[in-house]
Design brief:
By secondary structure, this protein is α/β, with parallel strands linked by helices. The protein contains 9 helices and 10 strands. Helix content is 26%, strand content 18%. The strands form 2 sheets. It has a 5-stranded parallel sheet with strand order 3-2-4-1-5, sandwiched between helices. A 5-stranded mixed sheet has the order 6-7-10-8-9, with helices on both faces.
């Protein structure tokens, strides 16, 4: 279902626009086309216009759009250049797909695009995607919430050029000792490692993932104390994810969910049934 713009004063042009397919924002996932959701793949295959983040999205995903589809790359464009394209193509009655990498809810910059389209009374649909931290954990065959060890996942980033709110300073996030997934931080890896070492033991496992699920993917798990050294040795600057987590240590702890002495709604203790 699309997100409907404000309709306080309906008029024929707006009503006509509402009958057209919404501009569809798609999270393209980490890279591999077979990690797209079924809905995302379906929308891509029906696109008349593909406006895509070519600097971050794997070309194999963009290639799923039909041959007749108009393809517009956005790596060199500003918001002020992208929005008129989306509005114009939509008003032409064409199916417009705005393709981003990863998941639409995380560092996708769709907020300002949707706001602008809403102001122009253009309906929008958002299709989520798999995030790189999920794909990296799967690649390692690891859960990031191990009972009795860590039960919280924090998604964050180093301050960098655009900064973060003071309450989300990396020192505060790291102090939780949770499974910490850091995006957009490779350029600041020396500073990041220094901060993390104040809160995690030096031998805490860190997953370093570069272009997860792309054909040239590189992924490894290293001690926190060598995080910066390894990153710099491989010249990692972009499309790099860090997962700092005690869960990556290979703990043999188990949850109570499947424990014989743990009863719940679907497996009640016969002596004390759950109702």
């Amino acid at each position: 279902m699309g997100i409907n713009p404000r309709r306080d004063h309906p008029n024929p042009m707006v009503e006509e626009a509402m009958q057209r397919s919404p501009v569809c924002f798609i999270g393209g996932g980490p890279g591999a086309p077979d990690l797209l959701t079924l809905r995302a793949a379906e929308r891509l295959k029906k696109a008349d216009v593909l406006v895509w983040t070519d600097s971050l999205v794997c070309p194999a995903i963009a290639a799923l759009a039909p041959e007749h589809c108009e393809r517009i790359r956005t790596s060199t464009l500003t918001l002020e250049e992208v929005i008129p394209v989306l509005i114009e193509r939509h008003r032409q009655g064409r199916q417009v797909v705005r393709l981003h990498d990863g998941d639409t809810s995380l560092y996708s910059a769709i907020h300002e695009q949707i706001a602008a389209l809403s102001d122009a009374e253009v309906p929008v649909e958002v299709v989520p995607g798999l995030s790189a931290y999920q794909a990296a954990a799967a690649r390692l065959g690891q859960e990031l919430t191990v009972p009795g060890l860590v039960q919280t996942i924090v998604l964050g980033r180093a301050g960098g050029r655009t900064g973060v709110p003071e309450r989300e300073d990396l020192n505060r996030l790291a102090a939780l000792g949770a499974s910490l997934c850091l995006y957009l931080s490779a350029r600041h890896v020396d500073e990041v490692q220094e901060i993390l070492l104040r809160h995690y033991p030096a031998d805490t496992p860190v997953c370093i993932g570069h272009r997860i699920s792309w054909p040239d993917e590189w992924i490894d798990v290293v001690p926190l104390s060598t995080m910066a050294e390894v990153s710099q040795a491989r010249s990692l600057i972009r499309t790099t994810l860090y997962i700092v987590s005690p869960a990556l240590s290979g703990s043999a702890r188990r949850s109570r969910l499947y424990s014989p002495d743990h009863d719940h709604l679907f497996r009640p203790n016969q002596q004390n049934p759950v109702v």
